[in-house]
User: What shape does this take?
Amino acid sequence: MTFTARLLCGTILSAGLMAGPAFAQAEPVQTGPANAPDQVPAFEGQRRASQPESPVEVTQEVIAEGLPHLWAMEFLPDGRMLVTAKSGVLHIITPEGEVSEAIAGLPEVDAVGQGGLLDVALAPDFAETGRIYVSYSEPRESGNGTSVASARLVLADGGGASLEDVEVIFRQEPTYDGRLHFGSRIVPTEDGNLYVTVGERSDDPIRDQAQELQSGLGKIFRITPDGEPVDGNPFIEGNDGALPEIWSLGHRNVQSATLDDDGRLWIVEHGARGGDELNQPEAGLNYGWPEVAYGVTYGGAPIEGGITQSAETEQPVYYWDPVIAPSGMANYQGNEFPEWDDTFLVGGLVAQAVVVLHMEGDRVAQERHIDIGARVRDVRVGPDGAVYALTESRNTGQSSIVKLTKAG
Assistant: This one.
């Protein structure tokens, strides 16, 4: 069942899930004061869920450090990690922390501001084809934009790799001369298609295009392996000028995305101050930004008048005030942490933690922060069931990889 809540004629309606979760209760995670203390959640449990009463003990081990500024990681079938360096190259890292030479050959990236080489994902048929996808900020004649390329990763016997058949399959339009809010995550689905998340480029008024179906800013796309719109996308027919690749609209800057056990897409998107959101995007629906949003601007003023609820837009499943600054996301499936089965793991940049979300009926029942002590840019579940957090340092420009296992 999908949970949404909407304001209709002054009454909050939901999918019959208004009662609180049945999980054992404890205090919420201790955070700073809210940025928008006068804003009221649309329904009970939409923010500040309780922590687990008896949390599992976690051991942390740094398996690699002093790495170049990394942005994303993906596990190869043999247990090694394929990682993106923001400067525009790939590396392979072994479970023991050995780092390969740079794997060059991708298109040029515009590694400025929040841009660079961003996400990486394996095609579902990688074992047969070697196909991978990367997203990146592409330099263009009048600015830049988020693009997706496919390539064939050829693994060498000596541990290295090379790229072949590199092709740009998708470009977010319009091009914009900016440094912020590129997104992005790539989420392959079992049928071989891809969800691609992007940002709305941050600046006012360009961010308003998150509400326009003729623009690729502030959207989630669903495309084929060749970058074409997928049959059945919601805006292919009946919407003159709408981009047929669009799946959902009204998003701000989505850097966290994964599938749940039922194959549904979930995201966590960066809000402004006090407005990070967990959403389960559905075809053709509008998630509000910037017209409807929780939180305030970075200067403390209301966002577009401070409207947090509308009959025309979807409510977030959950939101954070103050923010965690989400980046990277995984649905936990593994033997190392049976207590975390089907939880969402979200990287927290400001939180400097792996945020563990226990779900019940498509609602957040419990929230826990595993303190990493560094900005968590990506989080993945390894084939061994351990959780791997990719961190970054603003001071040194370097990254580390931290392995989380169950204590004892």
